[in-house]
Fold this sequence. Notes:
Layout: E1 2-4, E2 6-8, E3 11-13, E4 17-22, E5 29-35, H1 38-56, H2 60-76, H3 78-89, H4 93-111, E6 121-122, E7 128-136, E8 139-143, H5 149-162, E9 166-170, H6 177-189, E10 195-197, H7 202-211, E11 217-221, H8 224-235, E12 241-244, E13 250-253, H9 259-271, E14 283-287, H10 291-302, H11 323-338, E15 342-345, E16 364-367, H12 374-377, E17 384-390, H13 393-401, E18 405-406, E19 408-412, H14 418-423, E20 429-432, E21 447-448, E22 451-452, H15 459-463, E23 465-473
Parallel strand pairs: 1-5, 8-9, 8-11, 9-10, 11-12, 13-14, 13-19, 14-17, 16-17, 19-20
Antiparallel strand pairs: 2-3, 4-5, 6-7, 7-23, 12-22, 15-16, 18-21
Helix pairs in contact: 1-7, 2-4, 2-6, 3-4, 4-5, 7-8, 9-10
Amino acid sequence: xxxxxxxxxxxxxxxxxxxxxxxxxxxxxxxxxxxxxxxxxxxxxxxxxxxxxxxxxxxxxxxxxxxxxxxxxxxxxxxxxxxxxxxxxxxxxxxxxxxxxxxxxxxxxxxxxxxxxxxxxxxxxxxxxxxxxxxxxxxxxxxxxxxxxxxxxxxxxxxxxxxxxxxxxxxxxxxxxxxxxxxxxxxxxxxxxxxxxxxxxxxxxxxxxxxxxxxxxxxxxxxxxxxxxxxxxxxxxxxxxxxxxxxxxxxxxxxxxxxxxxxxxxxxxxxxxxxxxxxxxxxxxxxxxxxxxxxxxxxxxxxxxxxxxxxxxxxxxxxxxxxxxxxxxxxxxxxxxxxxxxxxxxxxxxxxxxxxxxxxxxxxxxxxxxxxxxxxxxxxxxxxxxxxxxxxxxxxxxxxxxxxxxxxxxxxxxxxxxxxxxxxxxxxxxxxxxxxxxxxxxxxxxxxxxxxxxxxxxxxxxxxxxxxxxxxxxxxxxxxxx
Length: 482
């Protein structure tokens, strides 16, 4: 059993209660974390505010050393950390291992950025000198999602620390344990008060982080509804917010695409991480000339998927995070058939007795979907693929863009003008002949209702700094009232 306290101003603190964490594959208890209160969130914010000037003025080499130390320590425990992550989220062990590796890579990337946060000089008349400085916001709040807590959490945490900000982190209530492990290492590697961690409810801890006047910037990844609440709460104090919200990524397969390559990418794009992926390619937009062959290959690959606990090395797809989430997914499938679509694979709980204690949904494929159906419009956040057939490239682009979400898209084609077609897609990330992927050096974020701002890469520096402009006048001022 794993147990964690709150981490405030360098010390462990008890909460008013505890949050129990269970394995979604078995229902067994894994441990607990202290549940913080609104007042404890305020204490964490105060600690971060007290140390923000000290950390902002620390030598870049000091921040580099802290991030590098954490990366080294994570490498030493990577296997155990990945196993815990697979236990609490249900994701396959290989996916968890990849996520831990990505977190380590992000710490190393931003460790190399600390002494490269630069301003600029601005052309002016000879009697003036104008330069700019990138400076940290100060206290940053990080509300971490449960589906990729290490990948998405450390992306913002590492960038914020590298640029001289202090932190208050709210781990996800459904799966906080791996995040707490990483944050303990961060607390040990930085001065007291620089990193503070307060698990707790969104209505209490999350709301305090979003509305507190002493929080200088906020980053949130999650649903559109909660994101709207965070933006609304932050508006009272005009607090900058970087949000990554929902997705309904199209996988566009044009008539000249390599069918086998596309089938591999579509299957992995929708069923990886148990379908619980903000960039899951949940809408397959396929040219009618390739529909039958592509669907046949996708079905053949889907049938080979092994369901099971994430910690089993043989598992390809694990359970979804909660039973209530599973019930919502089943309702979406039922609604799709009511609207005239056809379930051609999955669509129900598996009948394997060995899986009856977990929140499992068979990998599901629905054909005959039109882009106005509910299953094509709303983010299901599970292993459900909707197939939409088109008769031209122009229609494919139109369908792909016809969504309130615009986080990511994939485009499968051998056309030389692939980059031109990518320009026509109104999505924050476009992958050509691949499903959408994350890299530490690459920016990440969405358009429309999928979010505001970009994290990752050097854009992560911009996300956690603001620009101050300094103008130096060399000539004496004229007396204006002579």
